[in-house]
Design a protein that fits this description.
The chain is of the alpha+beta class and 266 residues long. It has three domains: 96 residues, no CATH class; 106 residues, no CATH class; 42 residues, no CATH class. The strands form three sheets. Strands 1-2-11-8-5-4 form a six-stranded antiparallel beta sheet, with no helix packed on it. Strands 7-6-3-10-9 form a five-stranded antiparallel beta sheet. A two-stranded antiparallel sheet has the order 12-13. Helix 4 crosses helix 5. The two termini are 28 Å apart.
C-alpha cells in the first residue's frame, strides 16, 4: 500500500514537471549546499576546501576522490570517456590532508579524468591538485532526474542520514509540500523498510529491542524475509536460490503465511 501510494505521487510529480516546466529545466545548482545537504554528518565549513565557479566545482587544496562503482551500471548511469567520466548521479568520498567527507550529488555530472586509477571492478580513484576542476555539471540537467536519483539512492541504501526524522524530511521535500497524514505514514513505512536491524536483517530496526539500524537496499532486504516474500519482486531467480540453499531459519512473513494458508498459528 505504501509503495502504491508513493508510486502514484511519483507519477503526479513527473506529469507536473512536464506540464509546468517542460521535460528539461536548466538551472545552476548550488553544489556546495547540495554536498552539505547530502551529508548531514558534515560539520566543517567546506568553503576552504572547495569552490564553485558557475557550473564547475574546483579543488582549493590537493585531494583524492574515490568513486564506489557498486552504485553504477556501465553505459546506463556511468560512462568512462576520454577526458571525463559521466555519471547520472554522483556517489563518492573526497579526502584532503585533514578531512574526509562524502561528495554526493543527485544530478548528472562530468568528473574530470585527471590522474585516474581503476581498482579492480570496485573503485575509481582520482587525484587532484589545487585549482583543478573536479566536476562540471552538464547543461541538460533536469529537475526530475534529481528527485528520482535521490529516491533511488534511498531505496538502494546509499543515503547518509542523521536519524529517521532527517530521512522523512528530505523525502517529503523531494515529493513536494502539502502531503496528507496518510501520505506521511507511507513515507514512514518506506524509511522503516530500508533501516534494518543490524543483527537481524529480517526485521526493521524499529522492531528490535535495541535501536541499532543499518541502511540496506530494499531489493535485498526482501529476501531476508524468506523466498516466498522474494517472489513478489522482480528477481525471481534470487528468491528461488534463497529458498533452495539458505541455511537460516527465517520466520515466515505475513505474505508467506497467507500464501501457505497459515495466517493464524495453530
Amino acid at each position: 500500500m505504501a509503495g502504491a501510494s508513493i508510486g502514484e505521487r511519483g507519477t503526479q510529480l513527473i506529469m507536473r514537471t512536464f506540464h509546468t516546466g517542460g521535460a528539461a529545466a536548466v538551472a545552476q545548482h548550488d553544489m556546495i549546499k547540495d554536498i552539505r545537504d547530502n551529508d548531514p554528518l558534515l560539520q566543517t565549513n567546506i568553503s576552504s576546501y572547495l569552490r564553485q565557479d558557475e557550473d564547475k566545482l574546483i579543488a582549493l587544496k590537493p585531494c583524492t576522490v574515490t568513486v564506489d562503482l557498486s552504485g553504477y551500471k556501465n553505459n546506463d548511469n556511468i560512462q568512462i570517456n576520454e577526458n571525463n567520466v559521466w555519471v547520472n548521479h554522483f556517489l563518492s568520498r573526497i579526502e584532503f590532508d585533514d578531512i574526509i567527507f562524502n561528495l554526493i550529488l543527485d544530478y548528472p555530472i562530468n568528473l574530470q579524468k585527471i590522474n585516474m586509477e581503476k581498482v579492480g571492478k570496485t573503485q575509481l580513484i582520482f587525484h587532484y591538485i589545487a585549482n583543478d576542476t573536479i566536476i562540471e555539471v552538464p547543461l541538460e540537467t533536469t529537475e526530475i532526474k534529481e528527485q528520482v536519483n535521490y529516491v533511488n539512492r534511498l531505496l538502494g541504501g546509499k543515503v547518509v542520514y542523521k536519524d529517521p526524522g532527517h530521512l522523512i524530511t528530505k523525502i517529503m521535500k523531494v515529493y513536494g509540500g502539502g502531503v496528507s497524514d496518510l501520505d506521511l505514514v507511507h513515507f514512514e513505512v518506506l524509511v522503516s523498510q530500508v533501516l534494518r536491524d543490524r543483527k537481524n536483517h529480517a526485521i526493521p530496526a524499529r522492531l528490535s529491542k535495541t535501536w541499532d539500524p543499518i541502511m540496506m537496499n530494499i531489493k535485498s532486504t526482501v529476501f531476508e524475509s524468506g523466498f516466498i516474500q522474494g517472489l513478489a519482486f522482480e528477481n525471481i531467480n534470487k528468491a528461488i536460490e534463497t529458498g533452495l540453499i539458505t541455511e537460516d531459519m527465517v520466520e515466515p512473513s505475513l505474505l508467506g503465511n497467507l500464501l501457505t494458508g497459515e495466517l493464524i498459528k495453530k
